[in-house]
Design a protein that fits this description.
- The chain is about 55% helix and about 20% strand.
- With about 325 residues, it is α+β, with helices and mostly antiparallel strands.
- The protein folds into four domains: about 1-60, no CATH class; about 65-170, Tetrahydropterin Synthase, Chain A (2-Layer Sandwich); about 180-205; about 245-335, no CATH class.
- Strands 6, 7, 8 and 9 form a four-stranded antiparallel sheet that branches. Strands 11-12-10-13 form a four-stranded mixed sheet. The chain has a three-stranded antiparallel sheet with strand order 3-2-5, with no helix packed on it.
- It is rod-shaped and about 180 Å long.
- The protein starts with a helix and ends with a helix.
Length: about 325
């Protein structure tokens, strides 16, 4: 019984000593071996390693890329604008022994690294105006901050700073309203300028269009008058040539036109017996009966002539009577002209 207890105790002690004599470095990690507080060896490759039990200790650190995202801080630009800047950094432990001796753990390392980055950011932002930081020089600022902070972090803490990015640039809440008001006023000024330029251009275009319209209308009117005059001249020449071949027919045609103008369907005309206007009404045989102007004339018209010196009456109904004696004769003469 005692032998079994002793053997069991020896096995437990041997197992414990075996566990203490070995350690594993997993993928993505690295370790530093110390013996009584003195550095023995640094392990940066994954694998199973042996150490002295109860004498040597192993400190494990991350070998993967780490990141920090601290809270935003206020900075002052070259043109005295207050800015609220958030940044994010990516870093890696490349010298675990120096890292352990200076900052001990990752939490302390992140805090010290954020202080270094914040200082570099403050220096760079103070060298540029607000508009340049927001639009033009943002990439240059991040590259400069990364380069400067990386040298300090590697020398003092064994950390390689891979990248620093500005995540957000904003204005403090108390100054946002005034800045937005100035921006809105500037945009309104630009909009008013564009509208004024557009209205001025529209007036110029309308004036030019009206000018061209008047020119086109004047040219068109001139052309139409010329064409109308030429047409009237040609018409007059053709008419004169046509009617000049038979003057008697021309006289008959003109008087028929006068009859058409002064006689209506319900009218009475009073003329003197010797009126030349009654010439063809008193002597219709002068004109051929087959003439279309005579054939188409109204058959219900009645011509009454007096031989006793009384006025002749042409009756076309029993309505209002109009005395047109010399007026009708004058209208006939005007139509001939």
């Amino acid at each position: 019984m005692n032998k079994r207890v002793i053997i069991l105790g020896i096995l437990v002690v041997a197992l414990f000593a075996g566990l203490q004599a070995t350690y594993i470095i997993r993928e993505g990690y690295q370790g530093v071996v110390f013996q009584f507080g003195q550095h023995v060896v640094t392990r940066q490759d994954a694998g199973l390693y042996i150490k002295l039990p109860f004498v040597q200790d192993v400190i494990i650190f991350e070998k993967r890329v780490l990141g920090t995202e601290p809270q935003g801080a206020e900075y002052l630009s070259l043109d005295k604008k207050r800015l609220l800047v958030d940044h994010v950094s990516r870093w890696q432990i490349t010298d675990p022994l120096l890292f352990y001796r200076t900052v001990r753990n990752e939490t302390s390392a992140a805090a010290r690294l954020d202080q270094i980055i914040a200082g570099r950011l403050r220096e760079e932002i103070a060298r540029h105006d607000f508009i340049d930081i927001v639009r033009l020089k943002r990439e240059d600022i991040m590259a400069t901050v990364t380069e400067g902070a990386s040298e300090v972090a590697l020398r003092d803490f064994g950390i390689t700073l891979l990248d620093v990015r500005i995540q957000r640039i904003d204005l403090p809440t108390e100054v946002q309203a005034s800045v937005f008001g100035r921006m809105e006023a500037e945009r309104q000024r630009i909009a008013h300028r564009y509208r004024a330029e557009g209205e001025e251009r529209a007036i110029e275009i309308r004036a030019e269009a009206d000018k061209q319209r008047e020119i086109i209308l004047a040219n068109a009117y001139q052309t139409s008058e010329v064409l109308r005059g030429e047409a009237d001249a040609d018409a007059a020449a053709i008419t004169a040539q046509a009617f000049g071949q038979d003057l008697e027919f021309y006289s008959l045609f003109r008087r028929l036109q006068v009859y058409k103008n002064i006689l209506g369907s319900q009218s009475t005309v009073v003329l003197p017996p010797n009126s030349d206007l009654l010439r063809y009404l008193e002597s219709p045989v002068i004109v051929s009966p087959s003439d279309p102007l005579i054939v188409d004339a109204p058959v219900d018209d009645e011509v009454v002539g007096g031989d006793d010196g009384q006025d002749s009456e042409v009756g076309l109904g029993s309505t209002d009577e109009t005395e047109i004696e010399e007026e009708a004769e004058g209208e006939g003469t005007e139509n001939e002209d």
